[in-house]
Fold this sequence. Notes:
The chain is α/β, with parallel strands linked by helices. It has a domain at 49-175 and 218-267: Vaccinia Virus protein VP39 (Rossmann fold, 3-Layer(aba) Sandwich), CATH 3.40.50.150. Helices cover 42% and strands 18% of the residues. The protein is built from ten helices and eight strands. An eight-stranded mixed beta sheet has the order 3-2-1-4-5-7-6-8, with helices on both faces. Strand 4 (139-143), helix 7 (152-162) and strand 5 form a beta-alpha-beta unit. Helix 1 (3-9) packs antiparallel against helix 9 and helix 8 (182-202) runs antiparallel to helix 9 (205-217). The two termini are 26 Å apart. The model is unreliable at 1-19 (pLDDT under 50).
Amino acid sequence: MTGPSVRRIAGEDAERAAPAITPDEKAAAVQRMFGAVAPRYDLLNHLLSLNIDRRWRRFTVTRLLARCNAAGRVLDACAGTLDLARELAGRPAFTGHVIACDFALPMLEKGRPKTRTLGIGIACADALRLPLADASVDGAMVGFGVRNLASLDAGLQEFARVLKPGAPLVILDFTTPPRQPMRAAYLFYFRRVLPLIGRAISGHASAYRYLPESVLDFPEPAELALRMNAAGFSDVRWTRLSAGIVAVHDGVRQAPGSAGAGDSASAG
């Protein structure tokens, strides 16, 4: 995300001469934004994605379980309204425990009723400062969250810190379709149509201007994979879904100091 995008979220002047925003200011602005849109967040997710977001989450959880100890502890970071946590906890093959963290308390409160029968642990916590010990979880997943971190690289390093060696990290997030005419149609929808619908339903105009801006500022899949490598993940791969609207990345935490850490990245 860029400084000007966050200044618009916070309702500040986004003139070119404005001072650069700090990571803490950026985090606070994003936190306020998600708190404000929480009441309509689920409705807008399903509406704006034509309900395809459910399929994306299913794919993400399946990718996680292919590499994860299904009886272990799994972190859902930037958990939002807990749809991804619920998808994992509801899988018959998963017998472990989900720890869902998000720094926007209204989002967690909105999602809590969905998970009452699933035994999901919930914590209001910043993904850059997780309340977890080193090497204490068997897997981690992030759905539409790393794009909003005040520091992407610091977030990836924090996920690496809490994961056990060999444990997977799976990231689901938006990207831009690589081929025409899908790319042009997608950009028109994201820039012109989505903000109008989001504003009409949520009453929060800047939040749905921020979404396309943050996606366009976010690293392309190959670059994100390389940054996962640099943070200590190996065997990183990614898969584009729905003609490239989203991408799912996964990699495994290398043991600190091991040879070959962060040595691969490939498209799935």
